[in-house]
Design brief:
alpha+beta, three-stranded antiparallel sheet, 5 helices, elongated
Length: 173
């Protein structure tokens, strides 16, 4: 391929990416607001996405959980290594199963670190607040949801639905 063509291809893809990013910023906030309102009204936390009566994906309203979090793994590994060397890897890191087990034992935290149910203070651990709600989309594998939606976009079936997104390739002419 000639550099002229590579440059044009790059420019076209950048145009598409930038337009999609801008559209997603606006859509994500509006979509999240609609999900939260629906969840408040109905109690639902998950909804099917359908096209022509066929399930193509599922959208879930999720929230990052708060709780214990390791901020200084080295300090914690140093502390744990003496009594539980099987929990520490050779580079002063906790083994994944050990980190999970330790975090599960934390009931509180102060400036010194996380406090276990036995009252032991483990350095390098803090308690975090739950994060803001967010939406998660999972494509339906049975219906090959991605392909179904891609085909609908290509055929123009979704042109009216997407016309006001600012995506130049989908605008009405």
């Amino acid at each position: 391929m000639l550099l002229r063509d590579i440059n044009l291809r790059y420019a076209a893809l950048k145009l598409i990416r930038d337009a999609v990013e801008d559209a997603m910023k606006a859509e994500k906030a509006e979509h999240l607001e609609a999900l939260e309102a629906s969840a408040e009204d109905s109690g639902a936390k998950s909804w099917n996405v359908t096209l022509g009566g066929e399930k193509v994906a599922a959208v879930t309203l999720a929230q990052r959980s708060g709780g214990p979090k390791i901020l200084d793994e080295g300090a914690l590994a140093d502390h744990i290594e003496h009594d539980h060397p099987e929990m520490v890897e050779t580079v002063k890191r906790l083994k994944p199963w050990a980190a999970k087990e330790i975090l599960a034992s934390i009931v509180d935290a102060d400036d010194s670190g996380g406090i276990t149910s036995d009252g032991e203070i483990l350095p390098g651990i803090v308690i975090t607040e739950p994060g803001a709600p967010y939406q998660s989309l999972r494509w339906d594998a049975k219906s090959e949801g991605k392909d179904v939606v891609a085909d609908a976009i290509r055929s123009g079936e979704l042109r009216d639905l997407l016309a006001d997104t600012g995506l130049p390739m989908l605008e009405q002419r």
